[in-house]
Amino acid sequence: MSRLLITEITRMGPAFCVIGLQREKDRIQSIRPIPSCGHGWLRFPHRRCDILDCALTPFPAPCPHVEDRVATSGFQKSTTIPETEVVTYLRKAEVSRSLPDLFGCRVYENKTGSGLFAIPGEAKRSICGCETQNLRLELCANELRATLALPSGEVLRDLPVVDHDWRGFVDAALAPSRGANQVARLERFLNSHFHYKIMSCPHHFVRLGLTRPYHDYCWLMLDTLFPLPRPEWLGEF
User: Fold this and answer.
1) Strand locations in 111-154 (E)
2) Which whole-number Å values give the CA distances from 195 to 81, 138, 204, 210, 223, in the listed order?
3) What is the dihedral of CA 118, 121, 125, 127, to 10 degrees?
4) N or C: which end of the chain has fewer CB within 10 A?
5) How far apart are CA 197 and CA 85, in angstroms?
């Protein structure tokens, strides 16, 4: 059995992608448990910060998704640790301060649209953490997009935010029951209170990921943003 600390739950379409940390001797590495059929979970009853016991089998996944492991048994929850402790472990896993080191390859700007991408055969991994010097979230067709600056000074623009908790926060903020002008109110929050709450947090941390190959490219996305959103923030706008 393996012990896995759940650090990421992302939502893309109807399925969830789950990533956790596993200790192997003196090394902490990212592991992506996947079901025996497909790459995503239609139902995942556990939460980020849970420590789960599970059986994982190596899977010959093509680059850059070398973190894939097939889950051959159900997940059993062992315990839950605080969010701050999760970030402490993430900072000991894959971390980069510059764009080429994120995935061990060159990252390209989309010249005909938005976003950034890597070439599948060039990327050495599909997940990496980083500190940010600045971060901005904005709404685009009711979907969150992120722009952030790495410690190297390089700027990553227009990344889709697939973090399940942050997407859930946006869904709650735009619920019809919250009255009129939901979009404008959320945008004001993201342009003011949000920036202070995130950048002043001592355990502020970001994890970036690469999608599965799509039209020969793996697109960059913001997998995880710590701190996670708080339900009480909805009362501020």
Assistant:
1) 116-118, 127-130, 134-140, 143-149
2) 26, 11, 11, 25, 18
3) 30
4) N
5) 19
Nearest to 229 by CA among 147, 167, 159, 140: 167
Cβ-proximal residues to 117 (8 Å cutoff; 6+ apart), any chain: 107, 108, 110, 217, 218, 219, 220
Please enumerate in sequence order all residues whose Cβ is within 8 A of that of 194, keeping only pairs 6 or more positions apart, or say none.
Answer: 137
H or E segment and range at residue 32: strand 27-34
C-alpha to C-alpha distance for 84 and 150, rounded to whole angstroms: 21
Distance CA 12, CA 121 (A): 23
Please give the Cα distance from 178 to 154 (Å, whole number): 38
**pLDDT tens digits, one per residue of 90-104:** 999 999 999 999 999
Q: Which amino acid is at 162?
A: V
For residue range 144-180, list pLDDT tens digits in order. 999 999 999 999 999 999 999 999 999 999 999 999 9
Amino acid letter, 235? G
**CA-to-CA distance for 160 and 209, rounded, in angstroms?**
10
Domains along the chain?
Answer: 2-89 (2.40.50), 95-236 (no CATH)
Q: Report the alpha-carbon angle 155-32-116, nearest 5.
A: 25
